[in-house]
Amino acid sequence: MSRRKKTYAEKHFDFLPSASELTGRFIKDNADLWETLRNPIDFQENFTNLAYPRQIALVDLLHDITYNKVTISPAKMQEKLLDLSADCLEMIGWMCGSFYDAGNIYYPLSDDEKKLVRMECYGSIDARREHELSSYYKFFCKNENRGKFRLKDYDLSQSPMWRVFNQFESFRTIAPNVRRYMYRNGINPDALKVMSVSDFCDVIHKSFAKTPESMKALFLKTGYKKKFVKSFMREQGKTLYNRLIANGLDERKVVSLCRRMAQSGCCDIATLVVTEINFTPRIIKDLRNTPYYSEDYKVGDKIPEELMDRMFLADKENILVARDENGMPLSKDDMPCFEVHHKNAVKFANDDDYLAKVNYPTNLVLVEHEMHRAYFHGFDDTDEVAKNNEMYFSRINMYDSNVALLDGFNFEISCEWDKNSSLQKRIKQDKQNVVNYYEMQLQRFNNIPEIADRYHIEYSKRDLSNERRNLIGMLQDKINVSAEDLQIFTDWIVPDSKAQKSINKAAGKNLKLTKKNKGNEL
Amino acid sequence: MNTFLDEIKGKKFAHGEKLEAEALIIAQKVLHNMGLGMIPKSYADFLHHYNGMKFDGSYLFGATVDDDLDIIDKNEQMKKPENTILLGYNDFDLLCYDYTLGEYLIIDRNDFKVTDKYGDVELDYALSKIFNF
């Protein structure tokens, strides 16, 4: 058996802790954690004094006690431990500006809204499968139904579903690309009125994909996740540098990480190449036979940024790799692995406000990978409520919008985002473009009969019935549309008695509509 | 349409050690003992190319000793919907395989709602959705 196979086998068979061992963890290997726990008065100080990995271990332990209900006898001790762990968790939350939000009822976002949030965050869009596109859009994309139109005919404000995209700065910037694509491909502008979110995704994907076969297309040069990291480094890069140096990290590692974060907005450690800061004899020797060499380079001099950029672009950075005294590349085991975390869940950000703010820098924070897993997502929980689409939801949220990086539980770096003029401009514009997704969907549905009749598009009864059922469900959850619109809509879809009954109930049975209202719309 | 492997060609990311048959069997056995289904064949085929992958907050798991990518550890540690095996995650979503339906699912990490479903032959779409560069 090879050594590698044996290692994997050992990991999961020889060292798998038994249930009894799990209970033993309180006193066996975790004496320091136990000491920290049993001293509630000095908890904050003792917790701060623990090394970072032990802090994570303690959080894991508290999680087990509180949520996995690790059994301890006698029962009284279990109760005490539960109280104690809940208090300690609250204290840890307070130390890093967070709180445990549990037991409240929320409405999940629609799938379409979720997808837009992800696209903006990554700046990329996935190819759509044929069955994800609406039959109306597919009709207008057929060669025989294409035509010659003027660019000015493509008024995106006429499209209910584009207005959902238009809430985000990123999509507003690519609106000209969407119009141009449709114009160049002769897609009838009337399609805009009935296109779905997936249809627009198809247009965006095709506008930006390197080849039609690409699975993913980048529609932004830099997604908002990376933009956040770059902005942070512009504002507080020096502070992060000082912090990492103060932690005793090799300067070469710190410089390489900060450089990468500032230039590409990427924090990934696994793919990071740690380079030397100054020329070494080895580097000069290796450079000598390359086009990058210059007689001016001397051992001990600082490696110019411009040379580094050129070598990284050409994938030749390995020549600059930093090595230890044995000539081996430096280990990256002690380097912090930061990840971007959303301070408040996507749906919370939209609950009483507007969707676009979820990817604002004020809602993002850099946290170390283990803290991200064990603390910020360690307490996520969800439980569907019987009625409608409501959910109970538990999550660690953060209340300080200016905290931009957490290095462990007791060190933070903040940015004054409220003084950032481009963010203020973005907020102002976003607020002007807020729409309600369900209202837009309703408008789209109202447009369908008119467009379908005009172009003799066959109704797919099954599609229509599915869409109707979905929309009824959504309307039931969030009655933000006017009662009249709701009634007009239900009249149009020729409701069956069950659907009518549930809609009336959802709308609070306050539907007082005149015949005139009904007749005007359809 | 390209495959996921075509898409990631030339990109830099970290991955687990080369998959060995015994490691896959161990993973299947332990997952089974945990009351979960088997790793689907299409995903196991993918693991022969890359035995788990990670880059900047996106993870695909494998039968590997890398703690961040170990499919067994992650199925023990992370919350996931019932009747599913967790295969990966990113900032927003989980990639799970529903072994009762035989479908890959993209699931919102916050509310556990399924946002996309992919058949066995559509694994490339699911991988592309989770793994972001």
Gist of the model:
The complex is a heterodimer of chains A (522) and B (133). By secondary structure, chain A is α+β, with helices and mostly antiparallel strands. Chain A contains 24 helices and 9 strands.
Structure, described:
- Chain A is of the alpha+beta class.
- Chain A is 50% helix and 8% strand.
- Chain A has helices at 3-14, 19-24, 31-37, 43-49, 52-66, 75-95, 111-122, 135-141, 160-165, 169-173, 175-184, 197-208, 224-246, 251-264, 281-288, 305-313, 346-351, 369-376, 421-432, 437-454, 461-477, 483-492, 497-506, 515-521; strands spanning 98-106, 124-126, 216-218, 338-342, 364-368, 381-384, 391-398, 403-406, 412-414.
- Chain A has 24 helices and 9 strands.
- Mean pLDDT of chain A is 82; it is low at 14-23, 492-500 and 506-522.
- In chain A, helix 11 crosses helix 12.
- In chain A, the strands form 3 sheets. In chain A, strands 4-5-8-9 form a 4-stranded mixed beta sheet. In chain A, strands 1-7-6 form a 3-stranded antiparallel beta sheet. Chain A has a two-stranded antiparallel sheet with strand order 2-3.
- Chain B is α+β, with helices and mostly antiparallel strands and 133 residues long.
- Helices cover 31% and strands 23% of the residues of chain B.
- Chain B has a 7-stranded antiparallel beta sheet with strand order 1-2-3-4-5-6-7.
- In chain B, strand 2 (53-55) and strand 3 form a beta hairpin.
- The two termini of chain B are 19 Å apart.
- The model of chain B has no long low-confidence stretch (mean pLDDT 93).
